[in-house]
Amino acid sequence: MRDDFCAFILTHGRPDKVLTYRTLRRAGYTGKIFIVVDDEDKTRHQYMAEFGEQVLVFSQS
User: Fold this and answer.
1) Which of 2, 47, 52, 55 is deepest in the core (most CB within 10 A)?
2) Residue 40 pLDDT class (50, 70, 90 cuts)
3) 3-class SS at 56?
4) What gap in Å lies between CA 42 and CA 2, rounded to an integer?
5) How far apart are CA 50 and CA 61, in angstroms?
6) Which helix (H) or strand (E) covers residue 10, if one does?
7) In this predicted structure, what is the pLDDT of residue 56?
8) How far is residue 7's CA from residue 28's CA, in Å, rounded to a whole number?
9) Residue 25: closest CA among 51, 52, 56, 53
10) What pLDDT is attached to residue 4?
11) Pfam families, from UniProt (predicted)?
């Protein structure tokens, strides 16, 4: 698989229901996937616990 691209999944407030991530993996996607959340998401620490370094946090301000 090529390593010069990735998938970004924008999400908010549902760390236990990132269905797109599961769907991509089940479909055979083996590339990088990043979970993108904002700094005001109260559940961002749960995303980090579940997905680790795959989580990117951006500032809404």
Assistant:
1) 47
2) very high
3) strand
4) 34
5) 26
6) strand 6-10
7) 98
8) 13
9) 51
10) 84
11) TAGT (PF20691)
Largest CA distance in the chain: 36
Amino acid of residue 51: F
Dihedral, CA atoms, 14, 35, 46, 12, nearest 10 degrees? Answer: -30
pLDDT score for 6: 95
Q: Tell me the CB-side half-sphere exposure of residue 18, using CA atoms within 13 A.
A: 26
pLDDT of 1 strictly over 70: no
Measure the CA–CA gap between 27 and 23, rounded to whole angstroms: 6
Closest CA to 38 of 54, 21, 59: 59
- Our measurement of the distance from residue 41's CA atom to the centroid of its chain's CA atoms, rounded to an integer in Å, reads 13
Pairwise CA distance, residues 40 & 43, whole Å:
9
More confident residue, 2 or 59: 59
